[in-house]
Specification:
This protein has helices spanning about 10-15, 20-40, 60-80, 85-115, 125-135, 165-185, 190-205, 220-230, 240-260, 270-285, 290-295, 300-315, 320-365. With about 375 residues, it is an all-alpha fold. The mean pLDDT is about 90.
């Protein structure tokens, strides 16, 4: 039987019928799932699905691995298509910051208004605005972020108001690293980024001090670098059923030995390999249906809003257990994510594209550099 070869990642990324938005959506739903357990007092690995990979990983970490592989791929692709620092910064900021700003402002306002203790400072207190401005600015990408900047004193019992935001801090740092590598290119860009990604991926595990002052979340950094590396190979790289099957066989071959020596037969490398391979295969497949979900990316809004919604629900209804929490919270999270995309994220992205297109036209007319 002849198996039709999968299309290359470059072909998939250039077409509108790819499945990357659906993969991101599935990863976001996995985060909602694990947070439903965490916010109701069950540690990662205590859920039925997470128990299968505990203690090596959990569903949330695997979802983040998928997010960062895809992010590394598309952020690198963005730089390679237009290696200009100001335009790159505008594209990245317009994707990340508007939805984040609205979520932080909205969730902080609701939490302060309805879930404050009598001694809390209120909406216009210094603590509230430290939280708001710190999170909107990604804490300035500082090395050390004080724990007090993740919550507001006297609000929600001092809990972190949005436990999802810590990964955006790392995402922003990785955007900066792509720009630094791109600006420093001393070879043709594709070869340079390929070599840099391979070197940093190796260094992250063998010589972590290479980037330890700027990047030290090794697992997320590694997955982002895998995405970068895949982007540089995208014109030739094909990930299909055969590659997924080989990854599964590889993990299975290692299972017996690992299970005899450790609490699980899985390893982080094996899980990362499976996550990356399945994500790239599913994302690169041509998909004819699901048109709305392929063209509208609700995953970021779901990721942003799930934690504050669940935390407030738990404060209001402390008897909620994991599965009811999951069901009730989705009724709120999904509409919020849709509103965020249609009225905040997508309009800002369109405005940024129009601005860049207008500047390109002006530069072409005047002959000035863009």
């Amino acid at each position: 039987m002849n198996i039709r070869p999968a299309r290359t990642l470059a072909e998939a990324a250039d077409d509108r019928d790819n499945g990357f938005n659906l993969v991101r959506l599935a990863a976001a739903m996995a985060v909602v799932y694990i947070h439903a357990y965490i916010t109701t007092g069950i540690a990662p690995g205590g859920d039925p699905i997470g128990a299968l990979v505990h203690p090596v990983s959990d569903i949330g970490q695997m979802a983040l691995a998928v997010f960062f592989v895809i992010s590394g791929f598309f952020v690198t692709r963005s730089w390679m298509h237009d290696p200009h620092l100001a335009r790159y910064a505008l594209r990245r900021a317009s994707r990340l910051l508007p939805g984040l700003a609205v979520c932080v402002l909205l969730s902080a306002t609701v939490a302060v208004q309805f879930f404050s203790s009598p001694d809390a400072g209120g909406l216009f207190s210094g603590a509230t605005w430290r939280y708001i401005l710190g999170n909107i600015s990604l804490h300035g990408l500082r090395f050390n972020v004080s724990g007090s900047e993740w919550h507001i004193d006297g609000v929600l019992g001092g809990q972190a108001l949005n436990g999802s935001l810590w990964t955006l801090f790392w995402e922003g740092r990785m955007y900066v690293m792509v720009a630094l590598l791109g600006i420093a290119a001393a070879l043709p860009l594709r070869q340079w980024l390929m070599g840099a990604a391979a070197f940093l991926l190796l260094a992250a595990h063998l010589f972590p001090e290479v980037a330890s002052g700027y990047v030290w979340e090794v697992r997320l950094w590694s997955m982002f670098l895998v995405g970068m590396l895949c982007c540089t190979l995208a014109p030739q790289l094909r990930v299909g059923v055969i590659q997924v099957a080989c990854a599964c066989v590889f993990v299975a071959l290692n299972w017996t030995r690992n299970a005899s020596m450790h609490a699980s037969g899985f390893t982080w490398f094996g899980l990362a390999l499976l996550c990356a391979t399945v994500a790239l295969w599913a994302g690169s497949r041509p998909i004819r249906g699901w048109t709305h979900l392929r063209r509208h990316d609700y995953s970021y809004g779901i990721y942003l809003y799930n934690w504050p919604v669940m935390t407030m629900l738990k404060a209001k209804f402390p008897q909620l257990t994991a599965l009811p929490m999951l069901g009730v919270s989705l009724l709120l999270i999904v509409p919020l994510a849709m509103l965020s995309w249609h009225y905040v994220e997508a309009p800002v992205l369109r405005a940024a594209r129009r601005l860049l297109a207008r500047r390109a036209v002006q530069a072409a007319v005047t002959g000035a550099p863009t």
